[in-house]
Amino acid sequence: MSKILLQKENNYTISEEVDIILSAELYSARIFDIPIESSKELKLVIPDFFEEFFNIEGYSFYYVKLSKHKYLCFAYKQDDILDIIKKSNIDLKYVKNIYFLQNELKCENDNVYEYNKTKYICSNDILVKIPDNISVSTKANKIDLNNITLSKHNIFFNKSSKYIENKTAYIISFIFIIFAIFNFYKMSILNTQIDNYDKKLDGLKQKYSIPSSMIQTKAIIGEYEEVKNNYEQYRTALEYILNYNQSINTKLEDIEYKNNKLLITFENKNKEKLEKYIKKRYKIISSHVYNNNLSIEVKI
To answer: Are 6 and 20 a contacting pair, CB within 8 Å?
Structure first.
């Protein structure tokens, strides 16, 4: 399998699977000393550290652990990289994994590196692209991709969509299928129970000459019909909300159903559009943003 170094102004002819190494101008890299060891907590704070340098809206993040509390962190825009891949005449079906040149080159401070007339310099352990209008006297080390052994640290882009990761798509589809099967199973049980109650009640009425209009009889049947209706309403709401990604550019992170309410957590993108989309069908009880996530409580 071949490797290519993706730069902004390159064109390729690709007919087999390739690994892409991103040029330094396609991402931002920083080294942070963070007294955190939990991966879950680290993912929450990395965006805050980058926010000190630029507006992080639309960015995704990745990190490599260098030592106990020292991390090499990356910020990148998936959509921008996908556009450059397309402009470089690379079909996404041939892209296997995507890597960062910073992590794969293992650069040394003050050294200059060159690939396709583009030069990079390593400063404070961070590799940066040297602007084309700036000349350097230091002899450049040629980057030989054949001598680079790729690490395990890579990122994956969905090959069919810019807006939802493959893993997330599988999770959402799996959740939807499980809920659909669960609801179908529960509704089948409820229908069977209602039929059995009807038969038992008819037998009791005949045995004890109970009038068919008895209030208690209607209450029992009504109770089960209400449960059935609740499940139907919940399934309808779930189908509607899971279709959000067709019109709203965001990701579903979590969903919970309790007391005829849905608590949905999204990636905090297009908040106004997302709320407008939900309000077309359902009443929003509450909406708040926390740790770059948007949580919305919806009345079913």
So the answer is: yes
Write out the two tokens for 203: 């037998």
Phi/psi at 248 (5° precision): -120, 130
Which domains are present in the chain? Answer: 2-147 (3.30.420), 166-299 (no CATH)
Average pLDDT, the chain: 82
CA 46 to chain centre: 16
- Number of Cβ within 10 Å of residue 154's Cβ equals 17
As a whole-number percent, the residues of the chain with pLDDT over 90 amount to: 33
Residue type, position 290, single letter? Y
Write out pLDDT tens, residues 85-137. 999 999 888 999 999 999 999 889 989 999 988 999 999 999 999 988 888 88
List pLDDT tens digits, range 4-25.
999 988 888 888 999 999 999 9
DSSP-derived 3-state class of residue 273: helix
Rounded to 10 degrees, what is the CA torsion of 271, 272, 274, 276?
A: 160
Q: Dihedral (C-alpha) 109, 142, 149, 14: value to the nearest 10 degrees?
A: 130
